[in-house]
Amino acid sequence: MDIIVLKPGTTEEQLRHIIKKLESKGLQANVSKGTERTIIGVIGDTSKITEEEESVISIMPGVEDVMRILKPYKLASREFRPDGTTINIKGNVIGGKKIHVIAGPCAVENRTILMNIAKKVKEAGATFVRGGAFKPRTSPYSFQGLGEEGLKYLAEAREKTGLPVVTELMDPRDMEVIQKYADIIQIGARNMQNFRLLLEVGNSSKPVLLKRGLSATIKEWLMAAEYIMSRGNHHVILCERGIRTFETATRNTLDLSAVPVLKKLTHLPVFVDPSHGVGKWDLVAPMAKAAVAAGADGLIIEVHTNPEEALSDGEQSLKPNDFKKLMKDLKPIASAIGRSI
Ligand code: PEP
Ligand code: MN
Predict the structure, then answer these.
(1) Spans in the chain with pLDDT lower than 50
(2) Minimal CB count within 10 Å: which of 183, 220, 247, 261?
(3) Which atom of ligand 1 is nearest to the CA of 300?
């Protein structure tokens, strides 16, 4: 038994009673209250529960159904929430009909550049602004980000544009400062299996954008999401950003088949980051279009007013005008599959 589905109208007292029962068996309850139904994810070694004990639980007041999930990820599995998860961030509903676009520079470089980019992406129709203040650079000599100063500029950009902020957390020691400024906490590809970091954001109430690791299988990626969810934070967004293959024509190989695969396996929203996926600005638009057609719930796109001078990822950044054109071109694709952008 891995999931307990409660009847509509189950009382708090009945819920407490069920939780107590689980705890008496050495298990923990991970309660997820949806709009229509409350579901309990049973955490711990559920194989120790006998069939008899399971049938006792199945007739407790408030219990509608008990289910076993054979997959190693339980809270992240589609069975846990068949209708899909929606996440409301300051009125922006992720995982619904509308496709959201997170846009902005790879790194926050200075105040003027960020304000300019934020204004431009907002005008073009982006619904979130991005920018790294702590950057996971391959070389220790490359620009590492502005730290809290960068976060302050992001907060100012949010104030000026109304766009909520997405920014990366690299180290549990920066959790407090990131929480102060971010609306969505990004976990980068290089940290997808940094389990301590995952548990840390699992304790947070902020939504988490979990990028796919450079060589991670979909199963490993879902297990990383499970780490976060096991701490009670169910607001996880998965982001395909390309994987390592033998191909060198693109920076990574953007695995768009991950989108429909994930839609089957999990209820979590799925985003695609074509910028890091291909690594070349002129390939971003076609892959962004393909991602929308494949059913992505959102995109992350790097935009810079002067890509030639960018301190990181300039070669894959779109200029504001190209971004604007892309946003326009995505509209008919979204509507062809019954969505909006
Ligand atoms: C980024 O979004 O700028 C980034 C570093 O992404 P990834 O972790 O996917 O490489
Ligand atoms: Mn980048």
Answers:
(1) none
(2) 247
(3) 2
Integer Cα distance of 265 and 277 in angstroms: 22
Residue 181 lies in a domain: yes
| Ligand 1 and 136: CB distance under 6 A | yes
Measured CA to CA, the distance from residue 151 to residue 43 in angstroms comes to: 35
**Ligand 1 pocket, residue 132 CB under 6 Å:** yes
- In a domain? residue 203: yes
Instruction: Say how many Å lie between the CA of residue 327 and the centre of ligand 2.
Output: 20
Tokens of 11: 């009382």
Residues 6+ apart with CB under 8 A from 303: 103, 104, 105, 117, 120, 121, 317, 318, 319, 320, 323
Q: Coil, helix or strand for 164?
A: coil
Asked whether 210 lines ligand 1 (CB < 6 A), one says no
Q: What percent of the residues of the chain are helix, what percent strand, and what percent coil, each to the nearest 5?
A: 40, 20, 40
- Cut 0.90: pTM above it: yes
Contacts for 33 with CB less than 8 Å, ≥ 6 apart: none
What CATH number is given to the structural domain containing 271? 3.20.20.70
Q: Which DSSP category does 172 fall into? A: G
Phi then psi for 44, rounded to 5 degrees? 125, -170
Residue 76 lies in a domain: no
pLDDT for 207-238, tens place per residue? 999 999 999 999 999 999 999 999 999 999 99
Query: Chain-centre distance of CA 71, in angstroms?
Result: 21
Q: How many whole angstroms separate alpha carbon 159 and alpha carbon 153?
A: 10
Containing domain of residue 63, as a range?
3-67
